[in-house]
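Subject: two folds for Thursday's group meeting

Dear M.,

Sorry for the delay on this. The cluster queue was jammed most of the week, so I only got both jobs back this morning. I'm pasting them in the order they finished. Each block is the input sequence followed by the predicted structure tokens. Could you check whether the formatting survives your parser before we put anything on slides? The first protein is the one we discussed after the seminar.
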Amino acid sequence: MSSPSSLVGSLPIRLRNFLARYPPQIYSAAVAPRPTPPETDAPAETTLPSPYTPNRDAKGTHKPDPTVYSPSMALLYNSKEAPNPFLPRKDNRTGKWIPPRFGLRQQADLVKLAAKYKVEELLPPGRKSNEFKATRLAERGLRIKGTGIGQKVKGHKWERTMESRLEERRKAMTEMPEMIRLWRQRGHGRGWKQWPKR
């Protein structure tokens, strides 16, 4: 196993300077405290629900409430003692927002460089980190309305009514032998030769 000094020596100068200015013991995502999700009394679902809405009343999703807990936003933490250089913060004296020390393009470059050298977990949490992107993708879905966690797809009408039609078809198939028997008892099943000639 390589020593920490040899690991630091193998990093590019840009990463070394960043980690020297913002030490991982204070700023990294591993040591940043994260808010925990609120406790709910609802039991966890063991089966996945159907992605299609059964009726028109259940369609669509409303705009998310910004006060509700979000796993992706919980990753972005900014403390007052050691402000995260990747996130904006509010000035205590004036109340105005101070922009992040590193812009989004610089963050993306640093994250790509750190991921290449497998030291991404030493960087502060930010919007360009791979962990944030994966969590956000799971929340929002595949950029298709209704494919995120807890969302439903409206779908076409034939997709929404498919379950009921398949159930009717299955029921009709199970009752088919009885229907054929009754049809033959009434005299309809004598064959095509019994039809009157024209």
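Second protein, same layout:
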Amino acid sequence: MSQFPQLRMRRKRLTPWSRNLTRETRLTVHDLVLTTVITDSKAAEGPVASLPGVARLGLDALVEQAKEAASLGIPAIALFPHIDPTRKNATASEALNADGFVPAAIRRLKAEVPEIGIIVDVALDPFTDHGHDGLMLGDTIDNDSTLELLAKGAVILANAGADIVAPSDMMDGRVGLIRDALDHAGHPDVMILSYAAKFASAFYGPYRDAIGTASALRGDKRTYQMDPANADEALQEVALDLQEGADMVMVKPGLPYLDICHRIKSEFAVPTFAFQVSGEYAMIQSASENGWGDSDRLLIETLTAFRRAGCDAILTYGAIRAAKLLAGE
């Protein structure tokens, strides 16, 4: 191959049209999932201090945001609930309330914004008074007794109209049990997005503030979420969840784990999602607010990095803003 001056790599970068023509990775609105925090408490509605640009939404505001997302072409919305503390207890009983806030939110969205897909976490931590993702025996999470609740909760969400249920608890064996429960309840078409590689990360802090578990959490989640140092283990987790019936898999957090995203996509060639979690999004927003970076460019650059690593979709609090930027581009 000829070298400089015959070869000039900058030629392809000189104009917007040539950069677009030779672009290797394309981010589109169809790659985005809007992440939302919803609340059943009027007093809790409004901005989340540790997550700039994000607010807890009541049902009316949720519907309006979903309508905006759908109008921009965003294919799906993911719901994460903030539950009034008076409805939390050690057994997460509110997670099994078919007439509770989350099923009501799903039904409302299905009735008023039917064109958008609904993804809902199958998780106990928003509903427990100890902030953990499972039932506790003393200071230990009881994996097997938690599974039954997760399966029942998934069926309740499917009954309400959820299109995708997303177990985020990292209990062993939960995907298979949820798949069986959904099928037996007449929901063979409801998809499972497994948080297959969810790491015990320090990037979740603002989210825990948003859903009200930060102050309640006893200890940490390292006995069931993955060690951030491990990569081969992530592939093993993915393999197990796919064998149990997962339709798609998630890596969480996203940006610090792009190598995991790439390895999963390369190894399994299945729909691979990443979650741009609260800590990642808060850093982008805080940098901009302090004059340390352009939040719009930072958002698009990080979302493009997910796509370049092999991710098929990205859950992000910035989905609406990104969709508008992409449309403007």
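Two things I noticed about the second structure. The domain at 26-328 is CATH 3.20.20.70 (TIM Barrel). The mean pLDDT is 95.

Cheers,
T.
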